[in-house]
Backbone:
């Protein structure tokens, strides 16, 4: 067998100290990293919130600028629509009106005539001629309201449906309600006026001053940009995969956030709704989309990890050095103690450890030296006692023979006593049987009834692990359960047919009579209670005292079941023929929980069923 390798104690101490130190440093580093990460994340979220606010403020400032310009254009647009409608009222035909003469009032103006079918039959903008608005149901609803109100309406800036141009629109229906005069002014003609705050540069400062921003875009309520175009010249629209978040921001008028992985980095999408000043129609609300990246966040987290990692390595190195130095100091007195133990184990009781460390090891050293002195004295005493013990041992051997003789005598007396107790129990049973025979001598129909009731009741008690003392009391009570019938006239006991009420009252007195008969018999005091209550029922409908459930003595409940079963399966003067075992069991089960104890009936039925099964198996054999 290979011997286990010896590991010095100081190495174990060093290992424990290193592990403990590393664990503490790792725990503190983890806490510090979590705190640092949360702080960085909080700072990152705050910067996002600040940028949201700045972006919304930038759009708001731009919106005020556009709104002021649009208000200055509304008077011209109102005068123009009024002039067009006056000429229409005079000529009553659009083909006689030159709409181009009205567009000279302001640069970039176009005029559109919308008929009752929501089609543009006349316009100064050739590309929108015969434009059918029925494909835009939301816009149709707005046009219907304009016709119904019959007033001039000015909309905020919007994109044209055909060319996607940014225009300011106004509408006024003709008095006959057949047409709507729509005027649109191209806002791109005012870029010089809006040079400081326009759609082309509204987010430039925010994007250049924030490294965490990938892109900022302003979308109309239809999901189209105002000025950003694709390679084919069409305006950019929000991608399909991000449209649900954009739509949710429109519906809830709340900021909606979404996170997505893209090319190894995490992008944070924020959708910020913005209500246009006096907006109406199809472009009442815009949405600002800000896309943040996590590059700076990840850089800061990586730096935190490196700092923590370096600190952990330095802490581990220092803990190893400190652990070895400390272990050497701690283990030195221990080696002295081990050396002392080895010397003492070889019988050298004059050895002294001599540890002077001014700590617990010094106390241990003194205790160890005192222990050695004490052991030495004990060994000397042991040698002295060995002689005395040898002398005492001889005396004990002599006394052992005497004790064995006394033991044999005691065993013989115990056997005789057990025999006397058994004989005494038999005498009690024989005495009880004499009384039972007196009962059966008076009732010719109950020969052997008491013995059978005793057999059934004892079988149930043994199956339910009753105490032997209780079983003995049960035997007495079962044999004598009808002893009170000695005081009942024989004419009533042996009467053929049913008893009248008066006779029943007389019969019901036999538990009380039996209880009184046995009152002076000392060993039957517990059995008397069972005899007195054996006709009580668990539902309280029995006699003589109408007791219920656990108020009834357990031995009385056992006798009640055994008595009822034997009565049902034996000849009686009030019944022409006894019940079969199956019929009697059915009666017991029917009375379970009302007349009889629920658990005891189940045990008795199980015993009878097992007994019947064994009989059938024997017949087959």
Residues:
């Amino acid at each position: 067998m290979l011997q286990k390798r010896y590991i010095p104690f100081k190495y174990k101490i060093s290992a424990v100290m290193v592990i403990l130190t590393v664990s503490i440093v790792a725990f503190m580093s983890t806490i510090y990293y979590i705190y640092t990460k949360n702080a960085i994340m909080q700072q990152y979220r705050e910067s996002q919130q600040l940028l949201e606010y700045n972006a919304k403020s930038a759009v708001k400032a731009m919106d005020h600028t556009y709104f002021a310009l649009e208000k200055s254009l509304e008077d011209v647009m109102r005068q123009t629509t009024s002039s067009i409608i006056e000429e229409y009222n005079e000529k009553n035909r659009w083909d006689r009106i030159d709409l181009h003469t009205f567009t000279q009032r302001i640069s970039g103006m176009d005029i559109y005539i919308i008929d009752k079918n929501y089609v543009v039959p006349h316009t100064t903008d050739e590309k929108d001629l015969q434009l059918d608005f029925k494909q835009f149901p939301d816009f149709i609803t707005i046009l219907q309201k304009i016709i119904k109100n019959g007033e001039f309406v000015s909309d905020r800036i919007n994109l044209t449906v055909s060319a996607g141009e940014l225009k300011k629109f106004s509408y006024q229906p003709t008095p006959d309600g057949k047409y709507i005069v729509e005027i649109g002014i191209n806002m791109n003609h005012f870029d010089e006026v809006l040079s400081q705050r326009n759609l082309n540069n509204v987010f430039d400062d925010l994007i250049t001053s924030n490294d965490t921003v990938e892109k900022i875009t302003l979308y109309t309520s239809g999901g189209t940009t105002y000025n950003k175009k694709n390679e084919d010249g069409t305006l950019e629209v929000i991608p399909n995969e991000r449209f649900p978040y954009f739509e949710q921001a429109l519906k809830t008028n709340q900021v909606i956030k979404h996170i997505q992985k893209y090319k190894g980095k995490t992008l944070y999408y924020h959708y910020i709704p913005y209500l246009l000043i006096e907006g109406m129609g199809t472009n009442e609300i815009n949405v600002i989309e800000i896309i943040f990246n996590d590059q700076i966040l990840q850089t800061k987290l990586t730096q935190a990890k490196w700092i923590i990692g370096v600190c952990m390595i330095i802490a581990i190195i220092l803990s190893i050095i400190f652990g070895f130095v400390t272990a050497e100091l701690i283990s030195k007195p221990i080696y002295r103690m081990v050396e002392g133990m080895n010397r003492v184990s070889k019988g050298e009781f004059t050895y002294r450890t001599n540890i002077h460390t001014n700590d617990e090891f010094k106390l241990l050293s003194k205790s160890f030296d005192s222990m050695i002195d004490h052991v030495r004295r004990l060994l000397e005493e042991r040698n002295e006692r060995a002689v005395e013990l040898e002398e005492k041992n001889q005396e004990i051997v002599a006394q052992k023979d005497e004790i064995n003789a006394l033991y044999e005598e005691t065993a013989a007396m115990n056997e005789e006593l057990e025999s006397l107790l058994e004989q005494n129990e038999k005498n009690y049973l024989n005495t009880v049987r004499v009384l039972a025979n007196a009962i059966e001598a008076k009732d010719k129909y109950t020969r052997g009834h008491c013995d059978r009731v005793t057999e059934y009741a004892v079988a149930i008690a043994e199956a339910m692990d009753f105490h032997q003392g209780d079983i003995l009391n049960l035997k007495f009570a079962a044999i004598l359960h009808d002893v009170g019938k000695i005081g009942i006239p024989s004419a009533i006991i042996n009467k053929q047919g049913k008893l009248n009420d008066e006779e029943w009252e007389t019969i019901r007195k036999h538990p009380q009579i039996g209880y009184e008969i046995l009152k002076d018999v000392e060993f039957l005091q517990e059995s008397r209670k069972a005899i007195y209550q054996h006709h009580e029922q668990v539902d309280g409908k029995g006699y003589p005292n109408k007791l219920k459930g656990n108020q009834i003595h357990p031995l009385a409940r056992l006798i009640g079941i055994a008595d009822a079963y034997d009565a049902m399966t034996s000849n009686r003067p009030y019944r022409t023929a006894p019940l079969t075992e199956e019929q009697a069991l059915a009666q017991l089960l029917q009375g379970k929980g009302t007349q009889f104890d629920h658990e005891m009936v189940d045990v008795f039925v199980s015993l009878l069923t097992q007994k019947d099964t064994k009989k059938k198996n024997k017949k087959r054999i």
About this structure: The longest strand covers residues 265-275.
